[in-house]
Amino acid sequence: MNILGISCFCHDSAACLSQDGKIIAAASEERFNRQKSSSAFPIQATNFCLQKAGLTVYDIDYLGFHEKPFLKFSRVILGHLEAYPFSLGNFLDTMPCWLQDRLIMPLVFKQELGYEGKPLFIKHHLAHAASSFLVSPFEEAAILTADGVGEWATTAYGLGKGNNIEIFKEIYFPDSLGLLYTAVTTYLGFAALEGEGKVMGLASYGKPVYLDKFKQIVNVHPDGSFSLAQRFFGFNRGSRMYNAKFIKLFGRERQIGEEIEERHCDIAASLQKFTEDILIGITRKIHQELKVDQLCLAGGLFLNCVANNKILEDTPFKEIFIQPAAGDSGGALGVSSYIYNSILNNRRNYIMSDAYLGPDFSTENIRRILFNREIKFKELGDAELCRYIAARIAGDKIVGWFQGRMEFGPRALGNRSILANPCNPGMKDLLNSKVKQRESFRPYAPAVLEEKAGDFFQAKQFSPFMLLAAKVREDKRSVIPAVTHIDGSARVQVVNKEASPKFWLLIRELENLTGVPVVMNTSFNLRGQPIVCSPEDALNSFEDSQMDCLALENLVVERT
Questions:
Q1: Cα–Cα distance measured from residue 295 to residue 265, given in angstroms and rounded to the nearest whole number
Q2: DSSP secondary-structure letter at 452?
Q3: Architecture of 363-558 per CATH?
Q4: Pairing of strands 120-121, 62-65
């Protein structure tokens, strides 16, 4: 049974292929077309999935899409009508897209892929729910989803049991925590859909002294739900999501590139705390109602690892599961799983224990590329490679690490990573200046051997997908200063030996040299670019930066 799931035409387009319920391949279109957060039809991602499984589109039994387009279109049209005449510009910008492809999706699938069957359309938040619960290790769990907006829903909760999902309640547009977070992100001078993580990092530098103002723009109800005071927002009313009343309440907005002031940090801290408090209130109500101890989270809001950890710490739930592509790209995964398990009523037989679902490249392929580009390299066996790279990292060199199958989701988890020494207190600034060229306040993440995580970090639960923050133990903060955020936290990835044997071995070799089973891990990309997919992408980023060393599978290139 071959099922293809597709998400596109909003942001983070992706494709996912399952065979008999097991996820075979999944990838975001941005990695192929090199346009960050691409909304384009995922033709290259789909082709990869089919090729990985040795299939053609004629072998696909079911194709599913992560939204109901006509339901979403009703919301878009009503929003434009309610905001008219202020919405005229947005209306003229968006209508051609709807008329060109989004209202004729079956024809799009036929034209782009040659798919002749009848596609299945799954509601957006149901696809999110399925993307988490149906690939989780839980037989029964509460489910909470939250993002900007799907068709109408912005937040939903329900119960997953066996291969069934039941949604009990939804909160509808324009009441959206995701849109609130994005509105404040743009107010603070960062780009929508890309800057939310920056605001999360900036929050640690401020104090939540603006909570009273946030309570003026968002009403929180006794049942845990919320509603946005629309007089402060400008959805469908121009180029920005907030309006003059919002600016009067919070002060002048920050322009892109302007210096970050203490006030901006405090607003970010207040937004983060306010969001956490609402999510904690909702999850407590869900636990009280459903009386289950496991929780699955999905939707772009739950890429916020700090909020995720607060939910785990401050609610009665004992375990949570978040799959690595929690945002819209994960909708493709959710559709594929929902069709197989819930619509076709097949038992679940797949647990998502790693994110390595993308393309891989053979050593022979990479060797040929290096020869063609006249790049000198050395070839090492696995053990020798890990010892060599560990020595380079311990010597404060910055290493590009390109191995195996690319990760699915926005986090680099040891296959498309830039690695450095977490023990060097100046490494964060060095990495920023030589490679990443990003804001100084943004933290870098530690990857730690799973069996040693508790020695360095304090958490109720650790994540292999870098989706739970943890506290760095006080006696270890001076040991790994480069990955310890200003508030003593870290966005920890635990590395399992079975799931990622070569990355695990590298960290083990680094421990043998430094006594520390931790490596500094950030995504293999330069500022404004998607994470690298191919060896050519990796070489281009290596040449355009000042990385010291590049490991492409077992081939090592040194900067000369």
A1: 31
A2: G
A3: Alpha-Beta Complex (3.90)
A4: parallel
Burial 193-205 (b: 16+ CB within 10 A, else e): bebbbbbbbbbbb
pLDDT given at position 235: 87
Architecture of the domain whose range is 172-319: 2-Layer Sandwich (3.30)
Cβ neighbours, 10 Å, residue 534: 18
0.70 exceeded by pTM: yes
Query: CA angle, corner 184, sides to 243 and 245, nearest 5?
Result: 25
What is the architecture of the domain spanning 2-66+68-121+328-343? Answer: 2-Layer Sandwich (3.30)
Mean per-residue pLDDT over the chain, rounded? 96
Residue 167 token pair: 């949604």
- For 60, residues 6+ apart whose C-beta sits below 8 A from its C-beta are 2, 3, 4, 115, 117
Q: What pLDDT score was predicted for residue 356?
A: 98
pLDDT of residue 440: 82
Residues lower than pLDDT 70 in the chain: none
* Cα–Cα dist 135/540, whole Å: 35
Q: Do domains 2-66+68-121+328-343 and 363-558 have the same CATH topology?
A: no
- Sequence-ordered list of residues with C-beta below 8 angstroms from that of 370, at least 6 positions apart, any chain: 377, 552, 555, 557
Under the phi-then-psi rule, with left for phi > 0, alpha for psi from -120 to 50, and beta for the rest, what region is 526? beta
Q: What is residue 88's predicted lDDT score, i.e. its pLDDT?
A: 86
Strand partners, 552: 402, 555
CA angle 527, 528, 530 (to 5 degrees): 100
Structure tokens at 417: 């990573």
229's CB contacts (< 8 A; 6+ apart) are 216, 217, 218, 219
Domain ranges of the chain: 2-66+68-121+328-343, 172-319, 363-558
Task: Report pLDDT digits (tens) over 73-106.
Answer: 999 999 888 888 888 888 888 898 888 889 999 9
